[in-house]
Amino acid sequence: MCESNVFIKSEEKEVLFYKEAVKIIPVGEDEFVIEGLLGEPQKISGKIKEINLIGHKIVFEKK
Amino acid sequence: MCESNVFIKSEEKEVLFYKEAVKIIPVGEDEFVIEGLLGEPQKISGKIKEINLIGHKIVFEKK
């Protein structure tokens, strides 16, 4: 499967925010909802810094 | 593999912009570079409207 883990970067560290996301949809200025196959959707604030599909990794940076 | 096709949406139509992207990196305000496994990277202008990893589909919307 092609889920990606979503990380949030702050102070040069990348912290796992959401495991195995399947869908990311913008819901406002620098605000997104992340959906997974299981579990509740979660809102994240920040800018996308990297989408790495081979690495299964999406990185947001806090404003 | 987990490449996604990148579409650009304008006037309610989604047009294929880049086939089998593996990496998308912001390079400016609403500007991104798309990389694939093969072929040249390409710059795209617009806002991300949808990241659908299961559907292998990333949609941008023109400003």
What would you note in describing this structure?
The structure is a homodimer of 63-residue chains. The first copy, chain A, is built from no helices and six strands. The first copy, chain A, has strands spanning 4-10, 13-28, 31-36, 42-45, 47-52, 57-61. In chain A, strand 5 (47-52) and strand 6 form a beta hairpin. Chain A is globular and about 30 Å long. Chain A binds chain B through residues 1-4, 21-26, 37, 47-54, 56, 58, and chain B through 1-4, 21-26, 37, 47-54, 56, 58.
Placed side by side, the strands forming the largest sheet of chain A appear as 4-3-2-1-6-5
Determine the fraction of residues in helical runs of chain A and give it as a percent range. under 10%
Largest sheet of chain A: 6 strands, mixed
Number of extended strands of chain A? 6
Protein chain pair with the most extensive contact, residues per chain: A-B, 21 and 21 residues
Structural class of chain A: mainly beta
Number of helices of chain A: 0
Poorly predicted segments of chain A: none
- Overall pLDDT of chain A: 94
What oligomeric state do the depicted chains represent? homodimer
Shape annotation of chain A: globular
Q: Could you give a quick summary of the protein structure above?
A:
Chain A is an all-beta fold and 63 residues long. The first copy, chain A, has strands spanning 4-10, 13-28, 31-36, 42-45, 47-52, 57-61. Chain A binds chain B through residues 1-4, 21-26, 37, 47-54, 56, 58, and chain B through 1-4, 21-26, 37, 47-54, 56, 58.
